[in-house]
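Take one record.
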Amino acid sequence: MESSLTSTESNSRNAYPSITQGWILLAVLIGWQLVLSIPIGIPMFFANRQGINLYGLPELLVYVLTFWFTIRFAQRRRATTALAFAPVNPVIFPIVAVGTVALATLTEPLVSAIPTPEWLEEIMKQMFTKSLIISAVLAAPLLEEILLRGIVLDGFLKRYNPTKAVVWSAVLFGAMHLIPVQVVNGFLLGLVLGWLYYRTGSLWPGICLHFVNNALSSLGFFIFDTDDLDMGANTTRALIGNDTTYAGLLVLCVIVATGCYFLLNRLMPKREEV
C-alpha cells in the first residue's frame, strides 16, 4: 500500500504540464501560429490584391492547425490523448449561459477602462473582422478549452492545490491573447472557466461559457459599422445611453451572477473550494 501511494504521489508530481512547461506550451502555440501564417498568408495577400473575398477561411485554417499541432505536442508529453468530456447535469448549461451574460456585462466597464494606443486600435480593427467570427465563436471555444483546461489545467490540478492551478491556468489563458485588453478579460474569464472545469471535471460547461462569451463579443460587428467600431469601448453603456439605467443593469447583473453561482455550487459535485 505504501509503495502504491508513493507511486501515485510521484505521478502527480510529474504530471504534465508544470507551470514552466505551461509557458513553454504557450511559446509553442505562438511559434506554430507564426510558422503557419507565412505559407497561408501569401495566397491571402494575392487574393486581397485581386479583390477576392476568402471569408476568413485562411485565418480559420491557421487557427485550427495552430491549436491542433500544439495539442498534439502536449499530448505526446502527457502520454495520453484522453480528455474530460464527461457528461454533466443538463440544467448546468442554461445557468452557465445566463451567468456568462451577467459576468460579461459586469466586466465590461473594467476592460473598457484599459487604455488602448491608437496604433494598437488600428491593428485590432484589421485583425478582428466579421470574417473571423467563425474562428472566434465556433473554433475557439472547443480548441482553447481542450488546450487550456483539458490539458494545462488538468495537469496543474494533479501537481498543485486547486487555487494555484486555476489561477495559473487563467494567467496563461490571458497571456495567450497578447493584446492588453484581451489579456485582462482572458484572465478573468479563465478564472471562471477553471472553476467550472475543477468542479465538474468536464470540458462541456466551459465550452458553453466560452461560446456564449465569444458570441456576445462578436455582436458589435453586427450592431456598429466596422469602420466606426471602437474595440475598447463599453458597448452596453453606449447602447443604453442613460447612466442611471446602466447602473441599474449592473446591479441586476450582480444579483443574477450571484444567483447563478449559488445554483451551480449546489448542482456541481462538492470539492475543496478554490
